[in-house]
Specification:
By secondary structure, the chain is an alpha+beta fold. The protein has 6 helices and 12 strands. Helix 2 runs antiparallel to helix 5.
């Protein structure tokens, strides 16, 4: 008989949860540059490798654009290109261009800069709340032979990584602001081969957040960048500990369909339509726990492994 697994170690304490979420909110609290109302500055979260986390820059760019939009217009789409890695020790400048303000829609372009070089270029569209067509794809479930256990039934990153004494393991298990739970096994330590690359991930912030709908959409962009390329890795049996693995986001597209809170459980139903030329494409549909589809995401990234 196989002995039962050891019980998981105690995860992050409430104090560290609050610290992790507070650190993210501080990084997203942009400062306006004097006499330049459309220029903002943000700080970065410390990262194990010293580079700026791409999801952080996405969220900062969205919030910078939102500062220039009136009439309570909410972001409904974003298209971004990552051009250079950032240095987490250096402030990020965010310049906003006001491309259009119509009766229903506003469009902004944001360039994130360090050392006079662009890190990211993103275009966002905002819309006035309006009535219209209302339908969406259903959440995965029994009708398509998909088992979606509740978040309480899925191991946390802390359960998987807490016994590993390594800075990267400590970061993903204790220092991040989001509780990430992979249905069917995470890729932190080993690959989990899947012919389709399909992946289901439950995710929410570790503590409650302010009632700001733009902030929640920005934090959804922040959080999803942690997992968007994993379906491509899963199709090839790769894990994050693969020797020589090199991964970087190239571009990111996101559409927000309906209001959602990131301090409540969201299910990311993911797939990878294609990988080629050292690039992989990841897609995700995001659902609330009651099955409402709230967002769609696509990201292409560089995924390189040493050739045999």
């Amino acid at each position: 008989m196989t002995p039962p697994p050891d019980p998981p170690l105690t995860g992050p304490t409430q104090a560290t949860d609050r610290q992790a979420v507070a650190a993210v909110l501080a990084a997203l609290d942009l400062v306006t540059v004097a006499d330049q109302p459309d220029v903002f500055v943000g700080t970065s979260l410390p990262q194990p490798g010293g580079r700026v986390f791409g999801g952080q820059v996405l969220a900062q760019a969205l919030l910078a654009a939102a500062r220039t939009v009136t009439d309570d217009r909410l972001p409904h789409s974003m298209h971004a290109y990552f051009m250079r890695p950032g240095d987490s020790q250096v402030p990020i400048g965010l310049g906003v261009e006001r491309l259009r303000d119509g009766r229903s829609f506003s469009v902004r372009r944001v360039t994130a800069v360090q050392h006079d070089q662009p890190l990211l270029s993103a275009t966002m569209s905002f819309q006035v709340d309006q009535p219209g067509l209302d339908n969406h794809e259903p959440m995965p479930g029994p009708r398509d032979d998909t088992l979606v256990p509740s978040p309480d039934e899925v191991p946390t990153a802390a359960d998987v990584l807490a016994r590993i004494d390594h800075p990267v393991a400590r970061y993903w298990s204790q220092e991040t602001a989001f509780d990430v739970r992979h249905v069917g096994g995470a890729l932190y330590l080993t690959g989990q081969p899947s012919a389709t690359g399909r992946q289901l991930v439950w995710m929410k912030s570790r503590t409650p957040l302010p009632d700001d709908p733009v902030l929640h959409r920005a934090l959804m962009a922040f959080a999803c960048d942690q997992v968007m390329l994993e379906p491509s890795m899963r199709r090839s049996g790769l894990g994050w500990s693969q020797p020589g693995l090199s991964v970087a986001s190239l571009d990111h597209a996101m559409w927000w369909h309906r209001p959602a809170r990131v301090d409540e459980w969201l299910l990311y139903a993911q797939s990878s339509p294609s990988a080629q030329g050292g690039r992989g494409l990841g897609k995700a549909r995001v659902f609330t726990a009651d099955g409402t589809m709230v967002a769609s995401i696509a990201q292409e990234g560089m995924i390189r492994v040493p050739l045999d």
